Amino acid sequence: MIIELPPFATVQEYDVAIEVLDAFSDGLGHYCRLYSQVGLMHAKSWIPIPPSPSGCLTRGKATLLPLDDDRFDHLLMNFTRDLDQPVTTLFSKWWCPIEGVHAQTAALIEQIESIPLRRLVGDALLHPHTVRAFWSSPASKAHHHAYPGGLALHSLEVATMAASANLLTAYDRDLAIAFALLHDYGKVWCYANPKGIDSRTHERIGLQKLGPLLAILHAEAPDIGAALEDLLGGKRASRSGPYPLAIGRVVKAFDQMSCEMAMRPRLRQPTQYAEDDDDIKF
Description:
The chain is α+β, with helices and mostly antiparallel strands. It is built from ten helices and five strands. The protein folds into two domains: 12-81, CATH 2.40.50; 88-267. It has helices spanning 101-110, 115-124, 130-136, 150-163, 170-182, 187-192, 202-209, 211-220, 222-231, 245-263; strands spanning 12-23, 30-36, 39-45, 58-66, 74-81. A hairpin with a 7-residue loop joins strand 4 and strand 5. It starts with 11 loop residues before the first strand and ends in a 19-residue tail after the last helix. Mean pLDDT is 85; it is low at 270-282.
């Protein structure tokens, strides 16, 4: 296979999250999608890319050579994996139709003090199915935030309010941000499916899709893993009192507040989504 280089092509480095697709039929390398702040890039590569243990995109630093090719933007020459590459260097403004949502969400994730929990939230939004769909999906079909980008905006609103609550410990605040950003995670699959999936099942779907990431979190930080799974509707964490469900009630209150604020006439936005009896209210 002949690779055409543009005149005066120079090697460039990018912070990226890589999705490795099928190998080429000729056996000469494989096709990669590279997600970064500058947007989506398409690359050809012969180097092995270590898979992510969670099945999400692999974060790291890529060395790229621009190509003069209709199929590929770049040749991937080197890749250094970094599981904790900040999402502030990866989320792109092109992903979400609502300005500023991607940057504020990334900044909030990076405020999570627990490294394993911060990694989980970042990886959850760098899943092959959610890396673009999370940012373009509505939060509902005909109720609150029922427009493209509504899911990301609603999740950010809830997380921002929860993170600003008074008297939270660092542990509580970490869980509040993570739970708030992921509480409607399953809706990505509900609204992206052309056949339609009952949105009332979004909690179960979200917990199922987060399963591999939660398993890693349980191994790295058992207490936080049990608490987050509890909050997301999974197996109850061991405790002597109501904690950590108390922080869950705080997040749910802000969830309801975000819904009510969005339903005020001056804040509602036009939507192409039709009424649906299966649509949940929050």
